[in-house]
Write a structure and sequence with these properties.
Layout: H1 2-12, H2 21-33, H3 46-57, H4 63-81, H5 85-92, H6 97-125, H7 130-143, H8 169-192, H9 199-213, E1 219-220, E2 226-232, H10 237-240, H11 246-257, E3 265-267, H12 281-294, E4 297-305, H13 307-313, E5 318-326, E6 331-334, H14 348-351, E7 377-379, E8 382-388, H15 395-402, E9 407-412, H16 422-437, E10 441-445, E11 451-453, E12 459-462, E13 469-475, E14 478-479, H17 483-487, H18 490-505, H19 513-517
Parallel strand pairs: 2-3, 3-4, 8-9, 9-10
Antiparallel strand pairs: 1-14, 2-13, 4-5, 5-6, 7-8, 10-11, 11-12
């Protein structure tokens, strides 16, 4: 095997390389176009083309060159793919347009380093093959879920949420889907380079996707589904936290809910109550009474001030939370994953000049993190797993919640990103989480996208965005667990690690030949 890799590398060096500026430009464009593979565009084939271009331009490049090529790709990926942040920074953060763009550019430079380090490692220590490129990519996607609290966005696997490869999701999660897509993308490059034998593993992976689609890990419980109403208040973000608008917000949600009492479950979105529970106890008591009188369960997002914990710690402990009350229903879930610059401002004293409008926003006052192990909400004595907004982007967090629940709920306020791709990318992640865990997901949002998503990850019903709406649907309880729910990301991570170990053992004596030759 060592001889094969050495011959492969030596033969490839017979071709004259293009000046570095060309692969840098190609990588930048390849990264920039990637987000068009995701919602709301759905050009899934770009999720194959984009990494394939990066794989191709890295051929024969030194580790030093690969670092900058990968960085160019990452900069394009994050600047375009996460440009929806501009709306929250400029429009709602009251930051000048030029400074807002500069902040996104700095974010892209920082996040792009993930790909830069990935490609440097690839060319420095491993042979040029899909069997090392794909595992490294998966490891760095996984790293984005925990390094510096994580920014788990723009994964390759999400492009196939409702496409053929998504059948791998209940087995190996989104990283498994990413792995398969990357192998296929790189194999295409190899086939175009007349290494036809890569047709075999490509066809096997496609056949495996078909076989996986025939598996069924979960089934509906033999009990009637819950009748559910999702309330979308459409409260403008610039008014949401104003003291003078708080009463109107409650009136809007109460009026939309008035006709829904008697349904099994009524869900209000994230922070739909823009006050701490301590400030609104009579209202909460009245809602609980109405829910119990009509046989309903009521779930709402609300800022929660934990007074006993505050007294114990000697400082206010605020949580972004979901509470449940009503007939045979109770529970409180505290958000575990907080959004930097969205729910707290790192180094807020030093950065107050950057986002001046957010300094007086109660949602930015410094929420605390909820405990890792929390009980699910109980709805008519059935467990309901919860995720608040950004948390649904973390596969393993949702998996833990799903493992002890019959169905799932996520509440969100994507009004920060109205008119951008952000809410649609967010919805696509919810679809993947439903598919991974074989659970129905209900998503209640302030402005959209409010939806019912079945255990296959398909959108069953969806409310119109940017308007007041009530979405009614049925929510069946599911039983059984997918392989992913049981084993988490470990199978794909261990397999990727083994491939990298084999690649390192059987690498050519000098992997980074072009770098060595220049010394």
């Amino acid at each position: 095997m060592r001889t094969y890799f050495t011959k492969l590398l030596d033969s490839s060096q017979q071709h004259k390389q293009l000046p570095l500026v060309y692969p840098l430009l190609i990588a930048l464009i390849a990264g920039a176009i990637f987000s068009f593979a995701l919602a709301p565009y759905y050009y899934w084939w770009i999720a194959l083309l984009s990494p394939a271009l990066l794989y191709a331009v890295l051929r024969q490049r030194s580790a030093k060159q690969a670092f900058f090529i990968g960085w160019a790709y990452g900069i394009g990926l994050w600047f375009v793919g996460a440009f929806w942040l501009y709306t929250s920074i400029h429009v709602y953060g009251d930051t000048p347009a030029i400074l807002s763009v500069l902040m996104i550019a700095i974010m892209a430079l920082a996040m792009g380093l993930f790909t830069a380090i990935q490609t440097w490692l690839y060319r420095r220590f491993f042979p040029e093959t899909p069997l090392t490129f794909a595992p490294l990519w998966v490891f760095f996607e996984w790293a984005k879920t925990w390094v510096f609290t994580g920014f788990p966005w723009l994964f390759v696997g999400y492009a196939f949420t409702e496409r053929f490869l998504d059948s791998y999701a209940p087995l190996f999660g989104v990283f498994g889907v990413s792995f398969v897509a990357l192998i296929l993308a790189c194999a295409l490059v190899e086939i175009l380079n007349k290494r036809i034998f890569w047709l075999v593993p490509s066809l096997l992976l496609l056949a495996g996707a078909w076989g996986a689609s025939q598996l069924n890990f979960v089934s509906e419980k033999d009990e009637p589904p819950l009748s559910v109403s999702l309330i979308q208040g459409n409260i403008p973000q610039d008014l949401k936290w104003l003291t003078e608008y708080q009463l109107k917000t409650l009136l809007i949600y109460s009026e939309l809910t008035r006709t829904e009492w008697g349904r099994d479950l009524i869900v209000w979105p994230e922070s739909s109550i823009p006050m701490f529970q301590t400030d609104i106890e009579p209202f909460l008591a009245a809602m609980k009474t109405e829910a119990e009188k009509t046989g309903s369960a009521w779930v709402t997002g609300i800022p929660y001030w934990d007074l006993p914990e505050s007294q114990q710690n000697g400082q206010p402990m605020y949580y972004n939370s979901i509470m449940a009350t009503g007939t045979d229903s109770e529970g409180l879930y505290k958000k575990q994953r907080l959004v930097p610059f969205g729910e707290y401002i790192p180094l807020s004293g030093l950065l107050s000049w950057v986002l001046p409008a957010l300094q007086n926003d109660p949602s930015m006052s410094g929420f605390s993190r909820g405990a890792k192990e929390q009980k699910p909400l109980m709805i008519h004595n059935s467990p309901l797993g919860a995720a608040i907004c950004y948390e649904v982007a973390y596969p393993n967090l949702t998996r833990r919640n799903a493992s002890q629940s019959d169905f799932l709920v996520t509440v969100s306020n994507d009004a920060w990103f109205t008119g951008t791709a952000g809410p649609w990318q967010h919805l696509q992640m919810v679809q993947m989480r439903a598919k991974e865990n074989g659970r129905w997901f209900i998503r209640a949002t302030n402005t959209g996208v409010t939806a019912f998503i079945d255990h296959q990850g398909d959108i069953v019903q969806q409310a119109p965005i940017d308007q007041e709406a009530v979405l009614r649907g049925e929510l069946p309880a599911m039983q059984g667990q997918t392989l992913y729910t049981r084993l988490s990301d470990w199978p794909v991570l261990i397999f990727s690690f083994l491939l990298l170990i084999l690649g390192w053992i059987y690498r050519p004596r000098k992997v980074d030949v072009s770098f060595k030759s220049r010394r």
